[in-house]
Design a protein that fits this description.
By secondary structure, the chain is mainly alpha-helical. It has one domain. Helix 3 crosses helix 8, helix 5 packs antiparallel against helix 6 and helix 8 crosses helix 9.
Amino acid sequence: MDTAIRTGKNANLTGGLWMFAAMGAFAIEDAFVKAASVTIPVGQILILFGLGGALVFAALALANREPLFVRDVLSPRMLLRILFEITGRLFYVLAVALIPLSAATVILQATPLVVVAWAALFMGEQVGWRRWVAIFMGLAGVIVIVQPGSDGFSALSLLAVIGMLGFAGRDLASRAAPATISTVLLGLYGFLSVVIAGGLYSVWQGVPPVVPDGPTALCLLGAVLGGVAAYTCLMKAMRTGDVSAVTPFRYTRLLFGVALGVLVFGEALGVSILIGSGLIVASGLFILWRGRQSDDSGA
């Protein structure tokens, strides 16, 4: 099973490539989810999406002759991961459905900042003061996009912020997950968490289910396939290389998401999004560069 965490220069490059592939697949998933949300309630989308992904990973586990349940699934670290997964998925899908895809994608790019900061504070990874400045600069970019206290502020943008925090916790918990749980099982229980999130929201929303038409069903299928591919690549990335070196590749999702938002959904990029994106990307690239320097702790 691919459960061991590998580190080193080559591992960091491999992990970065896995993360790049994951971000492209996640952006495709987001686009399909947004298209489906026009005709189907968000809670139903989460349930169908989660069931589809869970079935794929269950089939992969059976093909690999892996048990679908191991005792460590009920460990505190895995239960915490499931909680973060539910939070991230629910609030981010709500953001994708209710605000422009480009805005939701840009806000999500603060995830590496939170992950790197947490890895430095609580996981013993070395992060110099220059990267700390970059982290705060990227967070400032999120504030520019959200625009709290201004006439352009929309409370709906906070959905993306909460989703981002949930995904950051999910990624860190994935790295701390017991080694007995393979990438396939992480995917299985991750998608089952999505089903739980959808069920909870459906009960709260109280909207009856809708029978999807042909195009919507294809969108749901595309979202499931994109999500499975993205999830697999993400779990491999988070278990290959150092967290502070691999996670900055998450910023490539901004390029994919903004391009899809503009070209597919006809979204316009406002000044705040452009400025905020610039701050976030600049900080991410700097963190990536500093992560490759051997003397980071003394810089």
